[in-house]
Amino acid sequence: MIVVWCSTLHAATRTTVAVDLSSLDIASYQALDGLALEKRIVLRFVQEGFAVVDVHEHPDIVVAVRLASGGIMLEARTAHGTRSREIARRDDSLDELHLEIAQKAAELVRSIPVGVERVAPMIEEPRRLEPSVGLDVLWRGGGADVLPRIGVRYGAALAAVASAAVAVSSGPGISVQEWQPQLGATYRVALGTATAIEAGLLLGVLVEHYSVSDPMAQNSRGTLVDVIGSLPVSVSLAPTARWLFGLRLTPGLASEARRHTFDGATIWERGAFRLETGISAALRW
Fold it and tell me: Closest Cα to residue 281, out of 234, 217, 230, 219?
């Protein structure tokens, strides 16, 4: 990381290059020891006199590594197009394979004319599908509830988002399940090579099903529906090309507060204002 940072300081006067291993699936990344491979390629680029930067910093050239039938494909992408070179996969050690990939990657970059335009954002920010799971705590007036959540994000920096969550709670003689499907959009900004911050807007419904245990109660069970809006904000860390872990803070508002009474006493109550705090894990495709 120190080598990458130092080379970035001189990026204005040298050709900038980024390494992208995001097209490798998890099994391939592990089989190739992707972290060690990336370090080897970065070191070779620095030795060759290139400025190595993050893929989000609009480099002149992005060198991508992906699997091809029977081998490994190197692609050098610029605003003018893509040059590629295939490396046959042999029974060599990983260290020898990494050395060959780094050498061929340097040769590929050197073959591109100096002064190319920087890579277009559509190349450096491919659309991704990110299914996710999360565990939140939902804070409202009247109590706090555990809120397991699943979701999916599709896009680049700007993305469409869908999520669904459920909270199960209870009070004296009552049980409540609250289902929370939402749709919306988020925008993600990179803070570094592996961290990002994201904010968005979600709209959906809050479907509450309640059941009072006393058979003598009027309206002992039923379903209520409210409209809800949320403003999710998250900070994420990507320790590998495929996995993304985040901390989430989501204020929101429901169209109504909810209160259930029995014999004149309140047995369950939740306010309209809501705050979700929690963690999440996403897999990037």
Answer: 234
Q: 119 pLDDT exceeds 80?
A: no
Question: Which of 36-40, 53-57, 109-113, 276-280 shows the highest mean pLDDT?
Answer: 276-280
* Mean pLDDT, rounded, of the chain: 86
Nearest CA to 36 out of 88, 96, 110, 85 is that of 96
- Stretch 84-98: mean pLDDT, rounded? 84
- The DSSP line for 172-241 is TTEEEEEEEEEEEEEEEEE-SSSEEEEEEEEEEEEEEEEEES-TTSTT-EEEEEEEEEE--EEEEE-SSS
End-to-end, the C-alpha distance of the chain in Å comes to 25
Closest CA to 204 of 170, 166, 234, 233: 166
Q: Which CATH architecture has domain 2-124?
A: Alpha-Beta Complex (3.90)
Q: Are 59 and 45 in contact (CB under 8 A)?
A: no
The predicted pLDDT at position 13 comes to 52
- Here the contacts of 179-183 (C-beta below 8 Å, separation 24 or greater) are 179/206, 179/207, 179/208, 179/209, 180/147, 180/204, 180/205, 180/206, 180/207, 180/228, 181/205, 181/207, 182/228, 182/230
Is 128-283 CATH 3.40.50.150?
A: no
Furthest-apart CA atoms within the chain: distance in Å: 83
Q: What is the Cα–Cα distance from 46 to 40, expressed in whole angstroms?
A: 10
**Domain segments of the chain: what residues?**
2-124, 128-283
Q: Alpha carbon of 131 to those of 116, 160, 280: distances in Å?
A: 36, 12, 10
The token pair that represents 133 in the structure block: 């799971």
282: amino acid identity, one letter? A
Token look-up 């089989």 returns 31
Instruction: Name the pLDDT band for 195 (thresholds 50, 70, 90).
Output: confident
